Please model this.
Amino acid sequence: MANFSTHILRDEDIPLCSYLKNNINMFMQCYLSFYSDEITDDESTIIWILNHPNINNDEKEKYINQATTRISDVSKIEDKSLFTTIIKKILNEIYY
Model:
């Protein structure tokens, strides 16, 4: 399970933060590969990642599918094209 790594991205006081922000897609690819089972980021981190303009949608969709935390208010997600993935994940959790 993962949740520490993405918090680094949100902490401006960590020097590594600048590097990761400049290479956000590379970071997300590594993060998703390393934590292939479950990601337990909190809701605010999930929303931050899903609303990040420099993370491509393929990585966001993989992230949604690996995240175990539910988004309580999908209206906080700016990219409405991600709703399909979010809804499919919720329905999958309900029925399986």
